[in-house]
Amino acid sequence: MDLFLITFAALFSVLNPIGTVPIFLGLTQDDTKEMRNRTAFWAAVNVFIILLISFLIGEYVLKFFGISIDVLRIAGGIVICTSGFGLLSGSFGKKRGVSKKVTNDAQKRSDIAVTPLAIPLMAGPGAMSLLIAMYQDYPEIADKSIIATAILGAAISIYLILKSANYISRLLGASGIVAISRIIGFLVLAIGVQYIINSLLVIFRINE
């Protein structure tokens, strides 16, 4: 249960589905309720597939390119810190690489569940690197199953939040969403810093 909660909390912070609500509403503003719910469902499914693939085969991709897990943790920590700082400073869209041109193009397409919603808004490099590192940190099959279940739980939470986007937007308002994004941004920033520190400690220990 502890591993599930730790993985779920870390993923939820990095994925930040609440911070995606305003963008989701903007991209689906002309859709019916059924179309919006379908987009929310497939966005969650796409995030689950992307993260599960990253978790299961990411380590082998690293080995193929000769990248060590500690270097990945540092790179992932920097990406996570950048995302967290973007949330804190209010430049979430820019930090996640969603330009105005991409947004306008997405509004013209019938299916936005893959991009920009799944990639790069939620299942970005930060979440991927987090899971790749966890794959090596928890070698037991039982632990991997728990982490996979946490990924599924995060995907379900994405679906429920995006499906309730209109209600959440009315309930919290623009200022409420911004406030929650700031809190989540601080947590994401802390996670990134912790990843970098842990990796540096391991590297220095090895070189002693």
Automatic annotation (TrEMBL):
Main location: membrane
Localization of this protein: Cell membrane
Short name of one Pfam family: MarC
InterPro entries associated with the record: Multi_antbiot-R_MarC
Transmembrane segments: 6-27, 39-62, 74-92, 113-135, 141-162, 183-206
Cell membrane as UniProt keyword: yes
Annotated keywords: Cell membrane, Membrane, Transmembrane, Transmembrane helix
Coiled coil region boundaries: none
Highest taxon above the source species: Bacteria
Topological relation to the membrane, as annotated: Multi-pass membrane protein
Family: Belongs to the UPF0056 (MarC) family.
NCBIfam families membership: NAAT family transporter, PRK10995.1
The protein, known as: UPF0056 membrane protein
Organism: Paenimyroides ceti
